[in-house]
Structure formats: C-alpha cells, structure tokens
Amino acid sequence: MVGIHYFTMAIAALIVQVSAQNCATINPANPATFASGYSGKVLMNGLRQPRGLIFDNEGNILTTEQGGYGVRYIKLTDGGGTDVCVASNKQLIADSQINHGIALTPDGKTLFVSSLTTVWSWTYDGATGTVSNKKTVIQNMRNGGFHLSRTLLVPKANPDVLLVQRGSQDNIDTAAAQESTARSMIKIFKISEIQNAPVDYDKGQTLAWGLRNTVGFGEHPDGGIWSVDNGVDDMQRDGRDIHHTNPCEEMNYHGRINDAASPERGAHHGYPECHAVWDTSVIPNAAQLNLQVGTPFAHGVNSGDATCRTRQAPKLCFPAHTAPLDIKFHSNGTAAYIPFHGSWNKSPPDGYRISRVEFNAGTGQPIEPSTSTTAATNIMYNANNAQCPNRCFRPTNVAFGPKGQLFMTSDTTNEIWVIAGGFE
After folding, report:
1. Which residues pair with 376 in a beta bridge?
2. Which residues form the Pyrroloquinoline quinone-dependent pyranose dehydrogenase beta-propeller domain (predicted)?
C-alpha cells in the first residue's frame, strides 16, 4: 500500500510538472512591477480590446472585446498560483455592438451582455460553452458620444436583480441633474420581469444617481454594493484651473442590495453640480471653506457649496484622472481590488495600476477614513508612468478565479493577466 501511495504521488507530481511545462510563455507587451508577495504573468494575448471579465461556474473565463468581436469563451487548466494555461478558446457571441458589460446569474445559467443601447440575455451552458435563446431585456440607453459602456452586475445576495450603469452624455452633462434623464446613475431591474419583455432603462428603480461615469461596481460579501466613479475633466474653481489634481476619483457606497430602507438607496452623489476634493492646495480659500479630501464642493464658483454638502459624499477618494474601472472584493471581505485604467489629460500620467483597499470584514466598510490619501496600496503597476499610455499595460476589469488568483484584462495591450500571492 505504501508503494502504491508513493507511486500515485509521483504520477500526480509528474502530471503537474508536465502541465506547467506545457504552459506557453507569453512575453508581456509592457512589463509589470509587482509589490512584495505578488507575482503575475500574461495568460493570453492577441485579444481585441478585452474589457469585461467574469468566471462561469465551470471555471471558464468570459470576456467582452470592445474591438468589434463580441464575447470570448476561454477554457483553462489551472494548477494554482500563476500555473494557469489557456486550454482552448472560441468566440461565444459574435456581435460588434458589444463593448463592455457582462454578468452571469449565480446559478450560471443566464448570461447578460451590454452595448451602448441595449442589454441582452442568453441561456448559457458553461460546460459546453454555448448560448441560446437570445432576448433583449433592457433598451433605450443611448448617449450622445460620451461614456459608452454599460456595466452589469447580478448580486449573489439577490440573484433576481440586475444592476445596470449608465454614464453621462458629456463631461458636464447639465441635464443629468434631472433624474428623469436616466443618465449618470445605476438602475435596478428584476430579472424575472425583464425576461418577459424588454424594459426601457428609465423604468428601472434608481439605486444611485449623480454619478458621472461609474464604470466599475461590485458586491462586498455582506451584500453591500460599491462603485468607483470617474470625475470631471478640465475642472475650474473661481477662475482658477484646478483640473490637474481635482476632483478626486470616488469610491461610493450604495447600501446592501436587500436593504431597500438603506439611507444610501436612491441617494444623489452630486454630479453634475458637485464633485469631491482631492487636492486642497490649489483650491482658492480651501481652509476658510473647511474643504478637505472627500468634501463635496461646487464646480465653477463656491456659491453652490452649501447644496453640495447635502449630497452623498464618497467613502474614499483616489487621485484625479486615474480612471478606476472596476472594484472586486476578496471572498473574506477584507480587501477590495481596483484597476486604475490611467489618465489621458494629466502630466505626468497617473494610474495604470491595480490597487488594494483594506476593509473591515465585520462592518463591510473601508478601514481608512474618507479623508485618507493613502487608502489604496499598489500591488501591480508600470515602473515608469512617463511612458504611458503607449508603452504601459492599462488595467480594465478584474475577477477572482476559482482558485483564488486575480485575473485582469488590459485593453490597450490586448492581454489577460493572472496575478497570484496575497489572495489565495
């Protein structure tokens, strides 16, 4: 029996070794630097601007590709850590309109994908990598050229709910001050209802509004819904250009999905009139006005500050123009991971990294106060942002795999990365 035991162990070790040796080495388009305890590699390249990223219940990756492709199905062999290989991949859905959002019901049977105007559903089979029974479930979400993505989420705490984000129609979309425009917000839809007939986006229940462009949102294990918002460009205050370091990029809380009485449910977060401070040093009379990091304040002139103080303030702030595009939580609730896509109107460039934010698992809230400037710790980043965006990876979406690693899409380098350490 002992001989058989050791023989079995040797065979298993050989299988693992061969699997690792068969895993192709893919050189990254641009190298990454990792914090102590973390490592990573390119899992797959040659994609077409990969954006949304989820895992199905069989451990396969589904990713949307903004470059006119649709949805790709990627089957893996996963030995843990960075010993992950692409076993096969194929086009699951061919549709050039698909540009970002993707979500799967917790039972793994219904897939949702979005375009600029529409959310569709399919019956999904993860074992065979097939879809059927396509339906239009949400419609009439077109914007006039700005903010084209429609992020989707089906919370595990309520699998009959689909959350759908829609951004603003311009940098400063003045009409979005009216909730009836159904822009700059997150809406709630009951899946059991939208499967019967298409619903216009404005008919959904408002989870939150006054959000300029909340591309990323996720669910804490306690059912709390969190989002990251991209602040305005070219900001001025009392005739001074303060856009280089203001406003902050926001991390917002929207209450637990099953708590309709939550004070955060349906809250206004300030946009388009109000934004949150990052750098007080460039804001005229900041000390006299009692402005600090995270304080909602008015664009243009300070006469609107009193109204802004009544708006829902962010729970945390990040540097201006770093463009957070997703937020995903560790399964034990102790940390959130945020990919910062990176700036386009800031010198030197900023962002282009994945950061970790510590959470209190018991309260479901960040450990750092809302005034913190150090809440985000970088775990993966470009060594020299001066070369960005042209010679950098640009993180877009992240997702935890079944063995605890973090996976990331980089849309400008057309890659998917796997990152290990600190999660498993």
Report:
1. 357
2. 33-420
CB neighbours (10 Å) of residue 134? Answer: 13
Residue appearing with tokens 């069989």: 58
pTM (whole model) above 0.85: yes
Query: HSE-up of 211 (CA within 13 Å, CB side)?
Result: 29
Write phi, then psi, for 386 (nearest 5 degrees): -60, -20
Other C-beta atoms lying within 10 Å of the C-beta of residue 174: 12
Whether 273 contacts 262, CB under 8 Å: no
Say if residues 153 and 224 touch (Cβ distance below 8 Å). Answer: no
Find residue 249's DSSP bridge partners: 318
Q: Which amino acid does the sequence have at 374?
A: T
- Identify whether 319 is part of a domain: no
Q: Which residues have CB under 8 Å from 178's CB, separation 6+?
A: none
pLDDT value at 14 more than 70: no
- Cβ atoms of 149 and 167 within 8 Å: the answer is yes
Domain that holds residue 143: 110-165+175-210
Which residues are CB-contacts of 288 (< 8 A; sequence separation ≥ 6)? Answer: none
**pLDDT tens readout for residues 34-55:** 999 999 999 999 999 999 999 9
With respect to residue 333, please indicate whether it lies within any of the assigned structural domains.
no
The string of pLDDT tens digits covering residues 119-154 is 999 999 999 999 999 999 999 999 987 899 999 999
157 pLDDT more than 90: yes
pLDDT at residue number 322: 97
Domain membership flag for residue 338:
no
The closest of 23, 100, 119, 104 to 59, measured between CA atoms, is 104
Is a pLDDT exceeding 90 seen at residue 67? Answer: no
As a whole number of angstroms, the distance between CA 267 and CA 252 comes to 11
CA dist., res. 81 & res. 404, Å (int): 8
Supply 124's token pair: 């999904």
Q: How far apart are CA 17 and CA 339, in angstroms?
A: 32
Whether residue 128 lies inside any domain: the answer is: yes
Question: How many Cα neighbours within 13 Å face the side chain of 24?
Answer: 11
DSSP class of 413? T
Query: How many independent structural domains does the chain possess?
Result: 1
Contacts of 387 (CB under 8 A, 6+ apart): 30
- Give the Cα separation of 196 and 415 in Å (integer): 37
| Amino acid in the structure at residue 140 | N
